[in-house]
Each structure stands twice: as structure tokens, then as C-alpha cells.
Amino acid sequence: MTIHEMNADLLPFADPGFQHDPYPFYRVARDLTPLYESPIGVFAVMRHRDVADLLRDRRLSAAQLDFGIANIFHDSVLGMDSPDHGRLRRMSAKWFTPDRISEWIVETRRIVDNALDEGEAAGGLDACQDLSFAATFGTMAYILGVGTHDAAECRQKVIDMGRALRPAATDADVAGAEEAFSWYVEYIRDLIVFKRRHPGESLLDSFIAAQGAGEMSEDEIMATVTLFYAVGHLDNSFLIQNGIMLLAGMPVERELFRSQPEVRNDMISEVLRIDTPEQFVTRFVLEDIDISGETLPAGSIVLGMIGSANRDDRVFPDPDAFDHTRPELTRLQMAFGAGQHGCHGQLLARAQAECAIGGLVERFPEYRISGPVTHHHTEFIRNISTLPIEFH
């Protein structure tokens, strides 16, 4: 069946059922076609091999995308093509090496231990606000050399921004995101002013120094720090939350995570695979591209459906089951993207997940979910809102 023969909407982005659980929809679309033309005017690439190839294809552009209210991100690596992308990426990539991650994770561990201490005294905690968000936001603030003031508002503004960066965004979503972006611009501007008055040796200090050397603009600093605040806590928080939620219902795997640290990296990869924090990446197509016999036309907008790719049974047999022993799992799962735009903060994300989930299961191996789990998933971003757990 070709993309031109379909009448029903296989990917109903605005449907609450789709947003809650898109994976059955992906399976149907993936089996029918490698390339789906959505009624909303975008193309979706569904299968693992095709998505992997697509994300490495230089015939796609991030710079040519219209980000709308999020056009600030064209001054970050998210919205650039080479050579500007490479120049800006080098500015921050050196801060996310294994040696640097070892430094940053000390701060994550301190925050996690404090949260678990307080949770032990109270008999439990909210794994979203008290543990995962506190750890990821606090660590990013530490890396940037700033405080954690207005943390809760920062979290909500990032959620508001993300709701507009999706196919089914409503007018209300766009209006909320406009306000959120305006708020963040002022927030980041205040951080830069603070750092100029109180210099140190943080990541933000290095950006300011690069600006002084003519290697980075003020707009690029603003956009990059905004991006780091967004991705550095929203996606990483979901990874931790989802790992905690999944392991709560899998006592055998939970005990493995606790007692065999050597399997933790693969288990984190499987958490990422089975429910990917960001479900797709968006690109502008510069030239016609063949997608397994179908034509992705020049001038179109394409979604590389990494959430679908991570459940493709052509690569991951029994894809809806949790199995951390899958061959080459860490290499094949695509939660961090691929190619030049692959996430260079993935080492930090993995380290934070191992620290937070590991700290929890080591101290409280019999923890359990103690109340309703709520979320605000969209078709783009997976987002758990509350995850109450109690200790025994």
C-alpha cells in the first residue's frame, strides 16, 4: 500500500488516545508503509532503518525549518546546519566528556541523597518533583554556575514551550508558549548579567568568554542556555521517572538493577527504547529522498519517528516487552537521535538515571507506587507529572 492509497489518519496527533499511547498506532502505520503522509501536511518516516538513515542524511535541514514562536532556537545547535552547527556544538561538547560527567554527577548524587533522606523521614516522596526534577534541574544549574531559583516556574515554562512544538498544537498552546519563551528570555538574560558580575569557571562563563573572543553571539548564548534548561531537565527527568515507574512493576529487573551495576547501562537503554522521551525529530527536506521505495519530496517537512523506530520489530523482536538483554541495544535504540544532531548530553542523561534510580533501589529496594500516576503526554514529549512512591 502506498502513501497515496490511504484514507484514514494513521497518526491522529491530536487524539488523546494517541497521545496517551501512540505505540499501537505506530505499529499499524509502520506495517503499512515506510513513509506516511499525514493529513496535516507533514511526512512521517516510521521504520528503524529508514529513520536511522534519515537522521544522518545531509539533504535534510534544521536551519530551513520555521520554528514559529520558537525561532530563538535557530541560534542554538537545534536549529543550525553545518558549519555553524559544528562551531557551536564544539563550544559545549567539551563540557560533556566522561571526565566532566564524573564531576557533575557528584552534584546529582548529593541532590539525590538529600531527597531520599527527606523521603525516608516522610515515608515516601513524589519521584517527579522531589527526586528526578530536583536532581536534573539542580545539576544543570550547577553546570551553568547559577542558582536554582524559580525552579518550579522554569519546569512549567519548559512544558508550556514544548506543547507548542508539535503538530497538534492549539492556539492556546501557542499563546502559552509565547508567554513562556518571553519569560525564559528574561530569565536567561538575568543569569548572564549575574555571571558577568560574578564570574567563575562554569559552562556559562565559558560561553561569555567565547562571546568576548568573537566566537559566540549573545543570541547564541541565550538560545543555547534556554535549550540546555529545557532538554537538561525535561527529557532527563522523564527517563528517571519512567525507569522508576517501570521497575516498580518488575521486581526481578529491579533487583538486577540494585545488585548488578554492570547491567544498569543496558537497562537504561531499554527504558529509553520502550518509551522514548521525545517521539520524533523534525527536518526540512532539501532534495527528493527515497525512503524504501517511496519518495520524500523536496520542500516538505518530515518527522523522523524515533518513538516508532524504537518499537520496530524488524530490529527489536517482541518490541512491547522490556528486555535489557537485547543484542546491541545501546547502539540500536535511538532516543538520543543520530548524526550531527545526536544529543551530546546523553552521557549526562545516562549517568543521572543511574545515579537517581540506583540510589533509590539501593536504599529502598521494596519501594512501591503509592497513588495515582498523572501525566501530560503529548504526541511529541512524554511527561509524567506526579509519581508518588512510598518506602518499606
From TrEMBL:
InterPro entries: Cyt_P450, Cyt_P450_B, Cyt_P450_sf
Name the UniProt record assigns to this protein: Unannotated protein
Transmembrane feature ranges: none
Molecular function terms from GO: heme binding; iron ion binding; monooxygenase activity; oxidoreductase activity, acting on paired donors, with incorporation or reduction of molecular oxygen
Family statement: Belongs to the cytochrome P450 family.
Entry coiled-coil feature ranges: none
One of the Pfam families matching this protein, by short name: p450
